[in-house]
Structures are given as C-alpha cells and as structure tokens.
C-alpha cells in the first residue's frame, strides 16, 4: 500500500499496481484477536520490510540522478496528495505505537506552527530540555505572527490564540490570552496617563493591522475603544515589533500579557486603565487537525509544553 501511494505521488504505475499491497495491509491489520498481538506485530514488520525492499529495488532501476530528479519533481497530483500522504504516515506511526513497535521513544519530524513573538519568549528556551528528553524527534518550526492554515500547511500541531470554533480542529487549552493597554513611562509623562477610557481620545496608538473597535469592561460599565478616535501613525503585524515600539515610547498599545508581563513587572511598561479589561474570549490553544491521529511525537510535545507553561508564568 505504501509503495502504491508513493508511486502515485511521483507519477508512476497504474491503479492496479498501486493497490496491490492493500490486501496485505488489511491482513496484517485485521489478523487475529486481541490475544494475537505478537502475530500482528510480526505481520506488520514483515510488510514494512517487503515494502522497503520494493522501494529500494525501484530506486536501482534508474540512474541515481534521474531517480532523485523524479523524487524532487512532484507532479501536480503528487503535490495535491502530499498532505494525505503525511497523514497516512502519521497513522502508520500511531499504529506502530498501538502495537508496541515504538515503545521505547517517539521519533520523526514534528511540524509545528506558532506565533513568532510567543515562540521567542516562551518556547525557544525550552527546546534544549525537550531534545534532551526526546532526542529522536526533529522539530520543524514555522514561526510567524501571521496565521497559517493548519490543513494546507500539513502541520502536525499549531499554537493559536482564538476561540476554538473550527469543527475541523481539535485542541488543548494552554491558557487565557489576556490583553491589556500599556505604554512606556516616558510616553505617559509626555502625553499624560489616561484615568478613564474617554481620556484615550487623541492618544497615539500602536495599532495591529487588523485592528477593529474593541470593548472595554469594568463591572457593569462598558466602553468601545475605537482606533479611529486615536492617532495611529504606526500599524504593525508583528508582536515583537509592537512590544519594542511600545517600550520606545511610540504610544499606547494593546498587548497580550504573555508578551509584556515581564516588562510591566520591571517597570519598563505601565498597565494603563487597570480596572478595565478587554472584553474578548481569546484563549491560547494547542491545536491539531481533527482528522489526524494523535501520534506519540505530537502527544509528548503537547504534554511537554503544557507541563512547563501551565499555570501561565506570565500572569501579573
């Protein structure tokens, strides 16, 4: 089956040839009852050896350079099939784990997407400890404050700040993404410190590119913070750049606590309008496609992050 799949990806073979391994897989997967685990493992390993041998034999049927050129030049149908092939490989890995074939330690490459600013502050410092514990896992990190499509990007796991509304995704909560207004002391000394939300009118705002009116609440009181009523001379789409601009006295900004809590604690930033909070339900989620099997490498990485980042170390 695996041999047939990769022949389809690289454009070779006919349908009959692509499917000829399917009965063997069905037999290996369905043979015996719950007491026949050893026999199933043996059949699975034999099938893997047979498939590997076929792939190696095919590689010797053509000159080396031509073979690698064919591998690199995916046809259109192969490129479209690639996410499904990755899922099949993930399911194979999960099947091996279920049969006890990967009992010693998780292995493989884990594709993880996360906001760059969060990763720089809270994840990168944890990686040496993770690799020391799981040396056979390679982390393929795609870091950007612009949201990436989990399905089209074929990611195993992603960190996202949003209500989990997409039914095609599953997730585990990492923590609340509390967001506050803040500014540098020198900016407030120059422009004055707002005491009430109405005092924000005319202040300089370091605005996020997708900024929209946001509601501030304090008990039963509510106020709509409208960026159009403030002066927006700088518009950003990167959290680290926004934090640096705020520290430099560029204006007020709305920041996640995970980004600026340490700056507030050190006195480099001031939490403005402390009695008010942004009325949103932003949550940090570790998410993965609902269709994906939760493989051992994904499970251990999720557990690793949750163990070290919950409860949230950035709360004031």
Automatic annotation (TrEMBL):
UniProt region (Disordered), positions on chain: 13-49
One Gene Ontology biological process: DNA-templated transcription
Residues covered by the LysR substrate-binding domain: 104-309
Keywords: DNA-binding
Domain of life according to the entry: Bacteria
Entry similarity comment: Belongs to the LysR transcriptional regulatory family.
Protein's UniProt name: DNA-binding transcriptional LysR family regulator
The species this protein was found in: Rhodovulum visakhapatnamense
């Amino acid at each position: 089956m695996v041999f047939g799949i990769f022949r389809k990806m690289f454009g070779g073979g006919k349908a009959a040839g692509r499917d000829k391994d399917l009965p063997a897989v069905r037999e290996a997967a369905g043979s015996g009852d719950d007491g026949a685990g050893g026999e199933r493992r043996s059949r699975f390993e034999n099938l893997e050896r047979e498939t590997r041998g076929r792939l190696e034999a095919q590689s010797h049927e053509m000159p080396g350079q031509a073979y690698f050129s064919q591998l690199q030049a995916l046809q259109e149908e192969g490129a479209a099939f690639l996410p499904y092939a990755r899922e099949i490989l993930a399911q194979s890995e999960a099947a091996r784990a279920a049969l006890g074939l990967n009992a010693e330690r998780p292995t493989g490459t884990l594709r993880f997407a996360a906001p760059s600013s969060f990763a720089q502050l809270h994840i990168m410092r944890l990686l040496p400890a993770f690799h020391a514990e799981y040396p056979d896992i390679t982390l393929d990190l795609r870091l950007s404050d612009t949201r990436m499509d989990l399905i089209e990007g074929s990611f195993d796991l992603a960190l996202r700040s949003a209500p989990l509304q997409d039914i095609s995704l599953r997730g585990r909560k990492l923590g609340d993404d509390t967001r506050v207004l803040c500014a540098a002391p020198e900016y407030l000394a120059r422009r004055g410190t707002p005491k009430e939300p109405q005092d924000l009118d005319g202040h300089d705002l370091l605005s996020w590119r997708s900024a929209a009116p946001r509601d501030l609440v304090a008990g039963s009181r509510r106020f709509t913070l409208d960026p159009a009523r403030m002066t927006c001379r700088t518009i950003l789409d990167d959290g680290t750049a926004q934090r640096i601009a705020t520290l430099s006295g560029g204006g007020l900004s709305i920041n996640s606590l995970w980004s600026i809590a340490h700056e507030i604690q050190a006195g480099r930033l001031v939490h403005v309008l402390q009695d008010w909070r942004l009325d949103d339900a932003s949550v940090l989620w570790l998410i993965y496609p609902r269709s994906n099997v939760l493989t051992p490498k994904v499970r251990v990485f999720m557990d690793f992050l949750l163990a070290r980042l919950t409860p949230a170390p950035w709360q004031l």
